[in-house]
């Protein structure tokens, strides 16, 4: 089966996920839109098991049956966690409009549920077959109706998808400007997913009001997902290659500060990869038997991801030079007057074609300020939780008391 539909049975499985994700980042230069379903499935696997242990429910068996169907049909699954959230300082039930978080609006006679609300920023959901809906935060008893997990086919009646705009997105629609697109092969997309009375049958409901498990589910999902941002090391590999290539083309690659900046890019990028791999290698079994990455290290990984791609982008833009943002477009290069002038004045190092110089500059533009800057930069900042969300987990898991004991012991302090 596809590894994206596989439940991790060992730390080695988690490590193989990480290798796959970096490799796909390298091959696409963007978000390849699939890790969120894999991470949701793994978090749901163990959480449904734990709920059943406490409540005697049958969510785990339901989830297994659903996942087996997904595996047999090789389906793509989107993971829908982030609600639109309204006023961030209010809980779901405190909001002026109850639909600002996805919730159970009413119940069906067959035991099924009817959902209302909206999920924001949904990666790849539009081009998935199914989505797994989950709450996005630890909830209290007053928010019982918001503690809902279920599977929904993408084309279920009552769902409206609203497509997000991206920087430079119209370039992909212009005819004859393949170079200006920067990466004409791959790009990601996100949608807002609105649920207006979407019916879900009981066999596809995997959590219904068990508020005490919402925090655990979010913590587990983010442990998988924050470490999944190893994909950005794959994009960083592309950036390093682009930074080195543009330096070769400009004739600067032997300058000591250029070499040092390439080393800095590699160092930052491998730090992302190293912490992701450490989280995977440190995976431990949950009571359900599947493996969960090491939570502290997964959060350290994602915290690095909120910063390092921005620094790598800055360094690459430094090496690229000003043509990164003043380069004329495809139409100018094929213009009878401007085209000839550009061929003459856009020459850099001997033997390098102007077309190749344009191509590498456009790729860097695409990844640092064009369509795929969504996948390389902004998604690195907010995807799987904005920076502060990781710091909350790091604060909880850094075990200050144990660290104080170490220091006091060496200092000879007796209290
Ligand atoms: C490209 C992209 C792809 C994504 N893909 C998916 C996906 O496939 N599935 C999915 O479920 N989600 C997805 N997300 C959503 C992502 O998890 C959220 O963007 C993230 O959790 C931040 O939420 P927000 O966008 O609502 O920002 P906000 O919550 O508005 O955060 C903005 C700022 O406000 C701060 N803040 C927010 N609430 C509080 C508070 N109560 N107190 C103090 N400070 C606060 C934050 O720390 C941050 O600094 C994606 C996001 C992006 C950008």
Brief rundown of the structure:
Helix content is 50%, strand content 13%. With 415 residues, the protein is of the alpha+beta class.
Give the helix/strand layout.
Layout lengths: L10 H18 L6 H21 L3 H15 L3 E4 L22 E5 L5 E11 L6 E4 L14 E6 L5 E5 L14 H4 L8 E11 L4 E4 L5 H14 L3 H20 L5 H26 L2 E2 L5 E2 L2 H11 L2 H13 L2 H4 L3 H4 L4 H8 L8 H15 L4 H10 L4 H11 L2 H12 L4
Helix pairs in contact: 1-6, 1-7, 2-3, 2-5, 5-8, 6-7, 6-9, 6-13, 7-8, 7-9, 8-15, 9-13, 13-14
Protein name: 4-hydroxybutyryl-CoA dehydratase
GO molecular function: oxidoreductase activity, acting on the CH-CH group of donors
Keywords: FAD, Flavoprotein, Oxidoreductase
For this structure, what is the CATH class of the largest domain?
A: Mainly Alpha
**Residue fraction in strands:** 5-15%
- Main sheet: strands, sense, barrel: 4 strands, mixed
Mean pLDDT: 97
Unreliable spans: none
State the CATH topology of the largest domain. Butyryl-CoA Dehydrogenase, subunit A, domain 3
Characterize the quaternary organization of these chains. single chain
Q: Reading side by side through the largest sheet, how are the strands ordered?
A: 1-4-5-8
Instruction: Give the domain tally.
Output: 2
Content-based structural category? alpha+beta
Bound compounds, each kind once, are: flavin-adenine dinucleotide
Give the second-level CATH assignment, the architecture of the largest domain: Up-down Bundle
Shape: globular
Percent helix, as a range, is 40-55%
Number of strands: 10
- The Rg value, from CA coordinates, equals 24 Å
Number of helices: 16
| Termini Cα gap | 58 Å
- Order of helix and strand elements from N to C terminus: HHHEEEEEEHEEHHHEEHHHHHHHHH
The fourth-level CATH homologous superfamily of the largest domain is Butyryl-CoA Dehydrogenase, subunit A, domain 3
């Amino acid at each position: 089966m596809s590894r994206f539909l596989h439940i991790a049975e060992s730390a080695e499985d988690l490590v193989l996920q990480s290798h796959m994700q970096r490799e796909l980042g390298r091959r696409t230069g963007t978000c390849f839109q699939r890790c969120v379903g894999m991470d949701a499935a793994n978090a749901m696997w163990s959480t449904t098991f734990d709920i059943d242990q406490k409540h005697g429910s049958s969510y785990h068996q339901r989830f297994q049956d659903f996942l087996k169907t997904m595996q047999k049909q090789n389906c793509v699954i989107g993971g829908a966690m982030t609600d639109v959230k309204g006023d961030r300082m209010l809980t779901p039930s405190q909001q002026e409009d109850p639909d600002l978080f996805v919730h159970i609006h009413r119940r069906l006679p067959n035991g099924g549920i009817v959902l209302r609300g909206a999920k924001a920023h949904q990666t790849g959901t539009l081009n998935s077959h199914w989505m797994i809906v989950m709450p996005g935060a630890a909830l209290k008893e007053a928010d019982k109706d918001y503690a809902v997990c279920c599977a929904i086919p993408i084309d279920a009646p009552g769902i409206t998808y609203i497509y997000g705009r991206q920087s430079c997105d119209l370039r992909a629609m212009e005819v004859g400007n393949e170079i200006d697109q920067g990466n004409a092969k791959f790009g990601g997309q996100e949608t807002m997913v609105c649920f207006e009375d979407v019916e879900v049958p009981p066999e596809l409901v995997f959590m219904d009001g068990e508020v005490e498990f919402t925090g655990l589910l979010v913590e587990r999902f983010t442990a998988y997902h924050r470490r999944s941002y190893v994909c950005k090391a794959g994009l960083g590999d592309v950036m390093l290659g682009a930074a080195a290539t543009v330096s070769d083309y400009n004739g600067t690659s032997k300058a000591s500060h250029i070499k040092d900046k390439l080393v800095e890019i590699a160092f930052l990028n491998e730090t992302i990869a190293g912490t992701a791999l450490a989280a995977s290698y440190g995976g431990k079994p949950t009571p359900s038997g599947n493996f969960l990455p090491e939570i502290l290290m997964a959060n350290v990984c994602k915290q690095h991801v909120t910063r390092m791609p921005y620094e790598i982008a800055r360094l690459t833009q430094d090496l690229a030079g000003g043509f990164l943002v003043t380069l004329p477009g495809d139409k100018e290069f094929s213009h009878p007057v401007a085209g000839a002038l550009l061929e003459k004045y856009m020459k850099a190092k001997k033997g390098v074609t102007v077309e190749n110089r344009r191509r590498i500059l456009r790729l860097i533009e695409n990844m640092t300020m064009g369509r795929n800057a969504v996948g390389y930069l902004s998604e690195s900042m907010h995807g799987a939780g904005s920076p502060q969300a990781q710091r909350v987990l790091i604060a909880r898991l850094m075990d200050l008391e144990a660290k104080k004991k170490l220091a006091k012991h060496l200092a000879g302090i007796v209290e």
